[in-house]
Write a structure and sequence with these properties.
By secondary structure, the protein is an alpha/beta fold. It folds into 2 domains: 171 residues, 3-Layer(aba) Sandwich (Rossmann fold); 142 residues, Rossmann fold (3-Layer(aba) Sandwich). Helices cover 30% and strands 25% of the residues. The chain contains 9 helices and 17 strands. The strands form 4 sheets. An 8-stranded mixed beta sheet has the order 10-9-8-11-13-15-16-17, sandwiched between helices. Helix 1 crosses helix 8. The longest helix is centred in the first third of the chain and has 17 residues. The chain is globular, with a radius of gyration of 20 Å.
Length: 328
């Protein structure tokens, strides 16, 4: 029988402080007090500002830019909490960076996702809560329990409410087909797939073919993340060339690195729907970007982990709390 922890405490690193505040507001508790900063020599320092002895502690941190700093912050926070006699520590990782490096797809390359998983476990973490991993096998890289939730129902429900004319869900590559198919089932839409080839280790790919029909249809391109936006914008162009009447795009994790924002601005994509799993700086908050909050989903899941209730039921509770964030 698992131990029950009376006191729930939530701390957040610097990568996504607003999401930490949303989660705490949903649960109805203040964020835990902690100092997380860098010394002049670039060393990260953490000081916990309250007692956590035997508490059920959750640490919220997205592994987003600066990725390596975000990872080190979480590792040091977990070590600090462990040395402060926290009862149980759960790493809440809305976006798991390095998720694309999940296998050896060429000679003499790392499996960095497994390395990060090992570091998190060794730091003293008891369990992990995350959202929409890039590959399902990443769960198996951890030696501790992992709860992987999905925010796909948030984005899918958003498009259901738009009542698109003849919707077609498009996967921007073959590897994303399962995710796109599940999205299409929610929308009761047909599925099309972009066949492409990635060029070496560069953030560049070449579109080869479109499998399926999009003629006179409203297209929704679905992916787990948008990085440089090359695949998404190429897919949008192909769909319009094949007769699509309008194109939307959606993902869970808006990485939006490098040329992503100029590409999306110049693209024919009407609207890009994402979540706040990654904090977006003001320069990335363009008009065609709609951000949905995952705060209620994570907050509900944290409450259920804390009380030992069913985690899968969190979807039903969070569905009534879907929030669109105003980018101001």
């Amino acid at each position: 029988m698992s131990k029950h922890y009376d006191q729930l405490t939530i701390f957040g690193g610097n990568s996504n402080q607003l999401l930490t505040e949303e989660i705490c507001a949903y649960i109805g508790i203040p964020p835990g007090r902690a100092e997380v900063f860098k010394f002049s020599n670039d060393n990260t320092f953490v000081r916990i500002g309250e007692s956590v002895r035997e508490n059920d502690v959750f640490v919220v941190q997205s592994f987003a830019e600066p990725v390596n700093d975000s990872i080190m912050e979480m590792l040091i926070m977990i070590d600090t909490l462990k040395r402060s006699s926290a009862g149980r520590i759960t790493a809440v990782i809305p976006y798991f960076g390095y998720g694309r490096t999940d296998k050896k797809d060429q000679p003499r390359v790392p499996i960095t996702a497994r390395l990060i998983a090992k570091l998190i476990s060794q730091a003293g973490t008891d369990r992990v809560l995350t959202l929409d991993l890039h590959a399902g096998q990443i769960q198996g890289f951890f030696d501790i329990p992992v709860d992987e939730m999905s925010a796909m129902f948030l984005t899918a429900n958003y498009f259901l409410e738009k009542r698109l004319t003849r919707p077609v869900v498009v996967s921007p590559d073959l590897g994303n087909t399962k995710r796109a198919r599940n999205f299409a089932e929610i929308l009761d839409a047909s599925l099309a797939i972009i066949e492409k080839r990635r060029v070496g280790n560069q953030d560049r790919s070449e579109v080869l073919n479109l499998i399926g029909s999009v003629d006179e249809c409203s297209v929704v391109i679905v992916d787990d993340e948008i990085d440089t936006a090359g695949s998404i914008t190429q897919a949008a162009q192909v769909c319009l060339q094949r007769g699509a009447s309008e194109v939307y795009a959606t993902c869970i994790h808006p990485v939006l690195s490098g040329p992503a924002i100029p590409r999306l601005q110049a693209s024919p994509i009407r609207e890009v729907v994402v979540t706040n799993s990654i904090a977006l700086p003001p320069e990335k908050r363009i008009d065609k970007l709609t951000v949905l909050s995952v705060g209620s989903l994570l907050g509900e899941t944290i409450q259920r982990i804390h009380t030992g209730a069913s985690v899968s039921a969190a979807y039903r509770a969070a569905a009534t709390m879907q929030t669109r964030l105003t980018l101001t």
